[in-house]
Amino acid sequence: MKVFFGLRTEQGCQVFTWDTLAPARPTLLDPARELWNHSPDGFNWGYGGSGPAQLALAMLYEITGDQDFSIHMHQDVKFGLVGKLEGNCWARSEEDVLKAALAVARTPEAKEQAVQHLAASRNRRRTRGEKVDA
Question: Which residues, other chains included, contact 63 with Cβ-Cβ below 8 Å and sequence gap of 6+?
Answer without folding.
Answer: 2, 94, 97, 98, 117, 121
